[in-house]
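Example record

The entry below shows one chain as it appears in the dataset: sequence first, then structure tokens.
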Amino acid sequence: YVYVYVYVHVSIALFTYLFFTFFTLFLFFLEHNIMLGAGRFVLRGARRGVMTSKQGNKNFYKGRGAKSTGFISRKGRFIPDPYKRVHFVVPNLEGCELKPYVSYKAPLVKGAIPTKDDILSAE
């Protein structure tokens, strides 16, 4: 039993020594940008940040997060969807005395928040 205990104890000690030795070497290589063999290719993409449209090939299109206003048909034509278009509700401004400029020195006027019915009934 003593021999088994000593063998297991030595094996665990040897394993921990080797593990921490290789781990320390790995951290050293990683810190100093020294990659050996296939490790160089594993960490190659991890150093880059967010990819922009300038970094891809000629077929890479990233976009800027704009929503589509339609879809592309099977024949390659763009079909606009009227439900996806932005629709502004603008009241009738005939006879309005307000000008398009508002001074930053104008006092803040607080009032009731208009509802959907208030806005639609202003037409």
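Notes for this example: The two ends are 95 Å apart (CA to CA). The mean pLDDT is 78.
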